[in-house]
Amino acid sequence: MKIVFIRHGEPDKTYVDEKGFIGLGRDLAPLTENGIMQAKEASNSSLLNRAQIIISSPYTRALYTAAIISKNIGVDILVEVDLHEFLSDKTFMVKGEEENSLLHKEFIKYMGEYPKGETRKWETIPEIIKRTKPVMDKYFDLGYEKIIVVAHGGIIRRYTGIGVIAYGEVLEMEYDKDFKCYGWV
């Protein structure tokens, strides 16, 4: 099965910051004007030709991106909750961008793995793989030949091995159930 990954467009967190949203409320941020343009540009990629379905993260920035692409290429969207962004705080109580950034820096410092004998608030790379691989396997088992997955950089890295993925970037890969996800990249 071919998977065409698209990273969501650039999010605008102004509103959620002004309202003081915490936890999952922070993921209600829409796209910036630039993010909308990134989604429109992604929809022009020839890699999307013959895709049978768009699978999207439930977060607003990904759904907004998927909706623009769906409208432009005429392919339906399905939401897969387990394609959500890396969790910087598994208690869903991150208080703002400053705390989120600190937790993400800690994730980077430890390369996505807890220090031996310790735990942290954030989700590890093996946990990301454990929740996302069954989603990919599901569509493989259903017999899809080509799907589009609109998701987040931390998920896309696990499947492409690419360390830096731009907003709106389109990447294609071949997938089967024996595929081994990438750890730290």
TrEMBL record:
Pfam family, one: His_Phos_1
Domain of life, source organism: Bacteria
GO cellular component, one term: cytoplasm
InterPro entries recorded: His_Pase_superF_clade-1, His_PPase_superfam, PGM_Phosphatase
GO molecular function list: phosphatase activity
SUPFAM superfamilies assigned: Phosphoglycerate mutase-like (SSF53254)
Protein name: Broad specificity phosphatase PhoE
